[in-house]
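Can anyone check this?
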Amino acid sequence: MADMTRGERTVQLFAQVISNPTKKNSVGDLMELLNIPESERRNVQRDMRFLSEMDAGRYVQQESVGRTFYYRSALHNADRLLFPNFENTMLHFVFLRRIANIYPATSEIITQLLERIENSLPPKEKKSIQQLGSELNSKILFMGTPPDFDEDSSEKIRVILQAIHDNRKIEVEYMTESSCKKSKRIPLMVIIYQNDLYVVCQSIQHEGDTYTLKFRRIKSVKLLKETYVSEPQILDKLRRQVMSGAAFLSGQEPKLQDIEIEFESHAKLFLQENPFNRSMQIGKTKDGKITVKMKAECNRILFNWVVSFADAARVIKPAGLKTMLSEYADYLKEIYG
């Protein structure tokens, strides 16, 4: 454990003391239990002093016998507090590990966290989790393509977020349909849309314009020393685009229209669970059908959303969206009719 960071080492020391509430531990005892080398003794002494002083000694108590200091848990019955309902904890643990890779940007973080938690468990509880995992993994299935996993994803998102926070430019290697291009970018925001991450950037060539990069297509990202000035009017424009559902495939300033669509009643739950944008309001007609009204841009994203409901949706307005659907129907009839 020589390469342990201070935070990791402090957590391990704290867990060791708290999980053995009746035992007194010297610095030497703790170093032996956690296999910490002698060269780290001064660091361990400093960590234990910090833990014993934390919140006025509420968690770790320090005692001295001669010139030797001993540490013990200041929490009574701490062994029963650690896992009050361990059976339920294990179920959540197994499920989280199984689905960790669904979101590429956080999969590595979740996996590392779960490994550290499991390594800190007593042997009996660790074995229980392993047995439960082997029983339940085959009962938690993924339909369609398996979840993506990018080992560098957590580091890439960390660099992007740091760049946004510090107003610094980044160098991005990005995959397109025809090539992989490396160029300088100005990151402004991160958008989460339909289980994907997008990085919104400000155009370097066209002042005031913005565009989006799909996070999955970013091969590498490097933080640059060069900074940029964040312009409030551009950020406000982006927020309006996101609120209206027009952050992609739209003009720089979305032209919102009144949208009204009638749906069959069986689509109600899906509409409630997957609203198109925040302005969407769901009502009910006299004949039991569902009406949806909202402000949105009449673009390809809205068109695709309506088409996904097949014959369960009928557009009332605007006329432009009805025309797009009519032309699509003509195309289908020509190809398949």
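Reply from J.R.: I decoded it. The longest strand covers residues 180-193.
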